[in-house]
TrEMBL record:
Gene3D superfamilies: HAD superfamily/HAD-like (3.40.50.1000), Putative phosphatase, domain 2 (1.10.150.240)
NCBIfam families, sorted: HAD-SF-IA-v1, YjjG_YfnB
InterPro entries: HAD-like_sf, HAD-SF_hydro_IA, HAD-SF_hydro_IA_YjjG/PynA, HAD_2, HAD_sf, PGP-like_dom2, Pyrimidine_5'-ntase_YjjG
Listed GO MF terms: 5'-nucleotidase activity
Annotated Pfam families: HAD_2 (PF13419)
Name used for this protein in its record: Haloacid dehalogenase
Organism: Flagellimonas olearia
Length: 229
């Protein structure tokens, strides 16, 4: 299936290994209760999910900064729900969301099983657009940090996926040629197209139900990796 022998497997973290949607929902449930925010959680999450993806895209493109990302995704969601939430409380919720998010540790289905399968056969690494402190807490809290030799994040790289530099930095850290690697991630734009730009091979875990494409092979469950690698 692959043109060159693979020695190193690079994973995205959020939505790929770490169950962002489930952990995020539990975080909102906690901080809404603690702050007396009376909205229907399921309605909030349904509206918030696409807005969050939209603002992450703006963040990747450097059209907004970190603080705008964290505030505006909440402001717009509450406004869409016609919920009267003052800015001061939104800033507090944005802060508490980041503070508590990494305390929840659910992984995507079969993530640990696949990592245990891959570890004896390949060197494993992470390339993530998340913030360093938060991502480290996620890895350690969910007890998967020991699987990875190198964790490269956008904060240390100074750029975000799909910028080629973050992938080149990860390859340099791992001291491996791109042709002997594969990138596995949920975002076609950030993970797949970004990796292929620097000649890495790629595997799209389509957990976001993005449209079909021919950039690389697509899987819908991590367990499928065992029949590929």
């Amino acid at each position: 299936m692959f043109e060159h022998r693979i020695t190193d497997v690079f994973f995205d973290l959020d939505h790929t290994l770490w169950d962002f949607e489930r952990n995020s929902a539990l975080t909102f449930e906690r901080i809404f209760k603690e702050n007396g925010v009376s909205v229907e959680l399921d309605d909030f999450l349904r509206i918030y999910a696409p807005i969050n993806l939209e603002y992450w895209k703006l963040y990747r493109e450097n059209r907004i900064d970190e603080s705008e990302l964290r505030f505006q995704r909440l402001r717009r969601t509450f406004d869409t729900m016609a919920a009267t939430i003052p800015d001061k409380l939104i800033y507090e919720l944005a802060h508490e969301y980041i503070a508590h998010l990494s305390s929840f540790t659910h992984l995507m289905p079969n993530a640990r099983q696949v990592l245990e399968y891959l570890e004896p056969k390949y060197r494993l690494h992470i390339i993530t657009n998340g913030f360093q402190e938060v991502q480290e807490k996620k890895l350690k809290g969910s007890n998967i940090h020991h699987f990875f030799e190198h964790v490269v994040n956008s904060e240390m790289a100074g750029v975000k996926k799909p910028d080629p530099y973050i992938f080149k930095l990860a390859l340099d850290r791992a001291q491996v040629e791109a042709k002997h690697t594969i990138m596995i991630g949920d975002s076609l734009e950030a993970d797949i197209i970004g990796a292929k730009t620097v000649k890495m091979q790629a595997l799209h875990f389509n957990s976001n139900k993005e449209p079909g494409h021919d950039h690389c092979k697509t899987i819908n469950n991590l367990i499928e990796i065992k029949s590929i690698l």
